[in-house]
Amino acid sequence: MKPGPEQFAVNEAWIVFQLNRKPILTEQDGPHNCFAVMDAASCFILGIELIPAMNAEPSVQEARTLLNMGRKHKQDLPEILFIPQKQVANILAREATQRGIEVRRVPEKDLSVFIRDARDGFEDHLAARSDA
Asked: Which domains does the chain have, with CATH numbers?
């Protein structure tokens, strides 16, 4: 995979990844991970879904919700869905494949040019909220 968003047209490829680097603690429901679906060309986050940290991966319903959030934004599905290789997301990959989306598992380092700013911004947002 060549680096950079410029290699894609808008809505050609999406990336699903875990937005947080460590679990988010909620008072009421315990620790969660935040999964995001992002357009690879624009690096625009199309949707996020909180997943209980005790779950290894998004459930069928959570996977469908992520894909539907992207579809709602773009009025279509992408040709390709990138998922980090080490991210447990077999259910999500299966749901995407069933919708005719080509799933590509790639090393997370190859996606960092796309997702680094989103993760950094998310962490800054959480830090600012905890300081308030």
From this structure: 22-131 (3.30.420)
